[in-house]
Amino acid sequence: MRMRRTLAYLIFASCILVLAVKNRAAEVRSGDWTISKSDTPGKVEFSLIEHHHGGTSSHQSDWPATSFQGLDFSKSGRQDVHFTIARDAGKIDCEGFLKDGEGAGIFHFQPDSNYAREISSVGFTVDDEKQFAMAVQDVSLEFARQMKNEHLTDLDADKLIAFRIFRVDSAFIEALRAEGLKISDADKLVAFRIHGVTPQMVRSLHQAGYSPDEDTLVAMRIHGATPEWMDQLKQRGYVHIDLEKLIAFRIHGVSPEFIEKLQGLGYSHPDPDDLIAMRIHQVTPEYISDLRSRGLHDLSIDQLVSMRIHGID
Fold first, then answer.
1. Which of 57, 160, 236, 310 has its CA 20 to 30 A from that of 226?
2. Residue 132 to residues 54, 58, 90, 190, 302, Cα–Cα distance (Å)
């Protein structure tokens, strides 16, 4: 009798466990969606606001209007809508309304039960959180395979999501490599997109005789040392300046206008290090002109910097 009760208990417990697993599997992520007009032609701003135990999280970006099959954004007045965004990672089922091309409603996400296993076979580990993000950002199995074939370092599921957000794809990678940049760092590719390092920029620098590494390219974009700005310096006689010095120019405010004013005062071609020192110590054209008005002429740049350092105004 005791054995039967024990066996019955185990069967009952097993049934409860199976039901719990099934309930968890059946849980569907849900939340709100909104669509609003975008400044980019042919696109709309689409937001998904997910509700969960930890609070809310949102995903917002511009989507092609063609992503929402069956929706007529040009239709005036209010219309009830029901549309599904189908991805390899799962389906985002939406219902609600549109009015004059904008609207809102609720969504439910149903993950694809095979996606985690299939993308794992490509080499990426995915949990529930990542699978939802990968559906939102359209990280398809084909895209994962393409990126795997690029032989990038530090590539994981999070990087795949970042790649889709910032538009890193095979075409971008191959265009950079075609310009002679042997890039393989996944993080650097994302940084390139964030800061605007393009194949055209790399080509311009190579044509000018430079061989910048990835960190230098990012630093140049962060500080605005663009090929166009470099062309302005060339007009002032500064050709093929070391890239680190060009970045220092931007950090400290050595501009073509600053150089032009100095040249107008008779300093025809100061050394790049002198220009940086002048900006650091606030040796401005106005300061030089003020000294000259008081009878101090023909001062060298070293003398001017020294005077500023010692507080001679």
1. 160
2. 16, 12, 8, 21, 62
